[in-house]
Known about the structure:
heterodimer; A: mainly alpha; B: Four Helix Bundle (Hemerythrin (Met), subunit A); 8 helices; 68% helix
Amino acid sequence: MDMELTGDATSLEASHAAHVKAPAPAAAAHGQQHPIKLYLVVWTALFVLSTFSYLVDYFDFHGYLRWFLILLFMMMKASLIVAVFMHMAWERLALACAILMPPLAVLVFMAMMAVEANYTNLARLTFFGAGQ
Amino acid sequence: MTTEPAATNEHNPRDSLAPLRGAITDWSSDQRSFKSASWGKTMMWIFLVSDTFIFSCFLISYMTARMSTTTPWPHPSEVFALTINGKEIPLILIAIMTFILITSSGTMAMAVNFGYARDRVKAAILMLVTAALGASFVGMQAFEWTKLIREGVRPWSNPFGAEQFGSCFFMITGFHGFHVSVGVIFLIGVAINVWRGDYDTGRIGFNGRRGRYEIVEIMGLYWHFVDLVWVFIFAFFYLW
Lengths: 132, 240
């Protein structure tokens, strides 16, 4: 960046030409290659976690324990898929922020709709009685 | 400036602010913000973010319907149970579908690796295995839909409880199944190109451009996303 600030017009033009001629930007050659063993470990972990979440239903857990376990296994699986299979762990922070932050807005939307749904439920109970 | 600023990751490991400083520099640089991702990969990521919002809207509307109804919600554990050898096993088909989709994600991840290693036969075979697993997933979903429709589940009513159950179920699983189907078609196409060695010979594709092995990784991003969405559907729709 410093070079650009000090460079005069001709050197900028020359550098622009060089950039156009370049076969591909450096970033395009940045392939994601990781040891197969890593994928096998994550794969096994996903299998185990899925079994755990299935067992939550099989053993018929209820209440907060059930919800907590479901969310825990779900978040662990989702993080493994995004970080390793989708290679987010090796991307730069600029991309990770741009991709992972906007979905957080969904949580706000979810909270708003939960309040709304509670209100609708209350109104239905008040005006129509408790179901048919 | 001869080239754009290089994406350097070598910094002092004790300097914990370095990634943050890198992010600010990347965003304020004049040519490209995503230095470790090509335009193709970036565009796939941005598409996936928009798809995340679509699926989020489905799941949030499902939450709203389920929370606001005064009729009890059907118990998914019983609705999706299968009777095998005279014994009723809860959610067993859904569990098998989950394992199949995870397996397909594993084979896809390895296909990406072999693609970058220029091992085109292994990459193509793994992609075709992924496509086959995806197709079997869609087949099981068709079986599940048929079973529920025979039992009288409709978007507007069902014999198990709250009426909204049917519309939520068909919308959410249908849209996900559509994504899997599109992925299978896309996978077969890319697998054929890889098998033929298009990305080694520089054959011009249907879009008038030469493809690169990176398309395998981009395809992989889409496929893993489909698996990711299923993780959320499995948790919120089937287990909750």
